[in-house]
Amino acid sequence: MKPESTVFAVAGTLFGLIIGWMIGTQQATTRPVAATAVAAPAAAAVPAGNPATRPMLDESQVSAMRTIAERDPKNVESRVQLGNLFFDAERYPDAIKWYEEAVALNPNDPNVSTDLAVSYYYTNQADKSLAQFERSLKADPRHVKTYLNMGIVKAFGTQDRKGAAAAWEEVLKLAPGSADAQAAKRALDNLKAAQPGGTPAPPGGQTPVGS
User: Domain 12-45+57-205 maps to which CATH number in 1.25.40.10, 1.10.3720.10, 3.40.50.2300, 1.10.10.60?
Assistant: First the structure.
């Protein structure tokens, strides 16, 4: 997931900013403010191993949610919230642990499944990320945020430009006129402006997490 070639001859940096917005707003509208449920990726391709730049982890909330989770092995919500807390702190391997437990208990929630898929991407597991996106779409074939993020992983994780374009075009079909569709359209426009035959570079010149 560290391609050396440059794909975006025109507005490459702008495209990176667009991708950052797309990842960064993933499921943000579905997260209850107080409960912090259904976490959203905070920024595109931010390295997970740099403690100096990580957001603070709310240890008190982690402790409270962990206690609930340990007392009730079937409590989905506590596991989702633990995943969210670790995700927001950019501790993606920890987020994966709790998201996986939540998805095992409730495989039909496309929001949590997609958060898990994005976490895989941030830990340099593009193929696993794409497989999880497919599970999200099995639960909800019209889940716009899944297609939006799938396009990112296909573009930058597996250098599948055609697949990325197809995913973003699906966003345009499912949510015309929405903010998601606007972002997908900008991404598609920049993809078309890329050098012929090139492979996508990481957004904004950054590298994926976990590499």
Answer: 1.25.40.10
Residue ranges of domains in the chain: 12-45+57-205
Average pLDDT over residues 78-83: 97
Sign of the torsion angle spanned by Cα atoms 140, 141, 145, 146: positive
pLDDT tens, 16-51?
A: 545 554 454 334 434 432 222 223 333 333 344 566
Q: How far apart are CA 160 and CA 143, in angstroms?
A: 21
Phi, psi dihedral angles at 20 (to 5 degrees): -60, -40
Nearest to 169 by CA among 179, 184, 180, 191: 184
What gap in Å lies between CA 190 and CA 6, rounded to an integer?
13
